[in-house]
């Protein structure tokens, strides 16, 4: 795991929350959506099928944990959740990363994807600090 490096584009657009079983957990810095990103801490992973079978259970445990944390983030932000989007695209950033996004039918991108929808709206510093603290104390 020592050769694991976060792609600079992910680093620049998100806040590191900590480590789960297999993945680094990050909060996407876009106040429009409760949006977490998981990065398996293995060098060279691009596709989900690149994850070793011995890491499958840890990856799914991390996805489940991130879903709960996305719901917690949404509650903290007063954002009702009617759907959780779990996705892996990698068309712009090839490094394997999994998005966990809380959604509802009143969010600005509904029912379409959040990718490429408008411009990200970074959290205000006082809002992000409280949210990060809430998330860090719950995993």
Keywords:
29% helix; 5 strands; HIT family, subunit A; alpha+beta; globular; 3 helices; single chain; 5-stranded antiparallel β-sheet; 139 residues; 21% strand
Textual characterization of the structure:
This protein has a single domain (8-129), classed as HIT-like (HIT family, subunit A, 2-Layer Sandwich). The mean pLDDT is 96. Helix content is 29%, strand content 21%. The two termini are 21 Å apart. It has helices at 8-13, 56-77, 125-136, and strands at 14-19, 23-28, 35-40, 83-87, 98-103. It has a five-stranded antiparallel β-sheet. With 139 residues, it is of the alpha+beta class. A hairpin with a 3-residue loop joins strand 1 and strand 2 (23-28).
Brief account:
This protein is of the alpha+beta class.
Biggest sheet layout: 5 strands, antiparallel
The CATH architecture name reads: 2-Layer Sandwich
The CATH superfamily label reads HIT-like
Helix content: 25-40%
Give the CA-based shape.
globular
Class from helix and strand fractions? alpha+beta
SS element count, helices: 3
Total discrete domains: 1
Number of strands: 5
Mean pLDDT: 96
